[in-house]
Specification:
Elements lengths: L6 E6 L4 H13 L3 E7 L4 H7 L5 H5 L1 E5 L11 H10 L2 E4 L10 H20 L6 E5 L10 E3 L13 H14 L7 E6 L1 E3 L14 H9 L8 E2 L5 E2 L1 E3 H13 L6 E5 L5 E2 H11 L8 E2 L1 H7 L12 H8 L3 E3 L2 H7 L13 H18 L10
Length: 371
């Protein structure tokens, strides 16, 4: 094979948390896998530092390429672009904007523009076996009920520009499934590593984890809303393992897969488990949704968690995601989404550790990399 390796992968989005974990999975599970990782110039130092988590042998199989996944030709020179295209067997397109406070123009440029650019290099890669497009279950927008893996455009509306632009990006990709070897992945809300609890920032469900762990130890907080809607959580290590396996499976080409917990828990049950893991009383009673939204407008709350109102909207959306296709292809590989009960302790311990570190710095105004 090329350069003596079994496969050569193009990875975008590095060194974001999702792309970093994807890179680790690629080089650790594939000892003869070589990765070209596209890195924006301003993140070059961070990317080099991220490689230190790898062994010497693993680092030798990673080539950092200065570029931009949303720029023309990925920001590469014509010669470099064609050389990479000729070498690659697979693409993992992880680059995206997920921060809900991002300007619409930025979200469109990265999410939609990035999809266009990755499709273009896929077109000129002669030996491409799979373009693994990392989308999101949030493309379902405001839909309720069961969402199937083969459904996308169903007249839904979107709650924010991230959902909207990522849905538009997936539409572009889905239109090319008959001409390119595309595999679309839609993870639900990604949380920390199930073994270590590691996560890049505290947002989404971490809002309530933070509120619970920073409240008086004997205070039973009321739950925002009734908490009977399912909370769809997946640990990042399951997402990367599944992505790697599906990208290697010829049966996955041309299909879409929900990476979701097949037995998700109601939101209230999730936070009962969080409370128990943190040694706190379980949530008691509930706050009506309208009052909760008003409370979350309190100035300064966004310093400890991003986009809390968007998370509350998710808590009130009765939606579920079919994982039939994912189960079909992963069952014989032994890759399953672990139940939340098996890793909640790791999630809580990691948050507690970071809170202790922040208190030790005694600088409440210092920007925290997690928020």
């Amino acid at each position: 094979m090329k350069r003596g390796y079994e496969e050569v992968v193009l990875l975008t989005g590095f060194p974001s948390f999702a792309a970093r974990k994807m890179l680790e999975e690629l080089v650790r599970s594939g000892p003869r896998t070589f990765v070209h990782a596209v890195v924006r110039a301003k993140f070059a130092d961070e990317a080099e530092e991220a490689l230190l988590a790898l062994t010497f042998d693993e680092r030798k199989r990673v080539n950092l390429i200065e570029g931009d996944a949303a720029a023309m030709d990925l920001g590469l020179s014509g010669k470099e672009y064609l050389e990479v295209a000729r070498e690659i067997d697979r693409i993992h397109h992880v680059a995206h904007v997920s921060y809900l406070g991002a300007p619409k123009g930025v979200a469109e440029e990265v999410n939609v523009g990035g999809a266009r650019e990755i499709l273009e290099i896929a077109e000129v890669a002669p030996d491409l076996r799979a373009l693994v497009f990392h989308s999101t279950a949030l493309v379902s927008g405001n839909r309720t009920g069961l969402v199937r893996e083969d459904e996308l455009e169903r007249g839904q509306s979107f709650k924010n520009v991230v959902e909207e632009t990522r849905a538009h990006a997936e539409v572009l990709v889905q239109r090319r499934v008959k001409s390119l070897p595309i595999v679309v992945l839609r993870p639900t809300t990604i949380v920390g590593d199930s073994a270590t609890g590691e996560v890049d920032r505290f947002d989404g469900p971490y809002l309530l984890v933070l509120l619970m762990l920073t409240s008086p130890p004997d205070l039973a907080l009321p739950f925002p809303g009734r908490g009977d809607a399912l909370l769809h959580l997946v640990p990042v290590d399951y997402v990367t393992r599944a992505a790697r396996a599906l990208g290697l499976d010829p049966r996955a080409v041309g299909r879409t897969f929900h990476l979701a917990d097949p037995s998700p828990l109601p939101a209230r049950r999730v936070f009962e488990l969080v409370a128990r893991a943190g040694g706190r009383p379980a949530p008691r009673g509930f706050i009506p949704a309208n009052l909760t939204k008003a409370i979350l407008k309190t100035p300064g709350l966004d310093r400890i968690a991003q986009s809390p109102r968007a998370f509350l909207e998710a808590l009130a959306t009765p939606v579920s995601y079919s994982t039939a296709g994912t189960t079909e292809l992963l069952v014989d590989k032994g890759i399953q989404c672990p139940p939340f009960e098996t890793y909640v302790d790791k999630i809580v311990t990691y948050v507690e550790q970071r809170l202790r570190e922040k208190r030790a710095r005694r600088d409440v105004d210092a920007p925290d990399p997690l928020v």
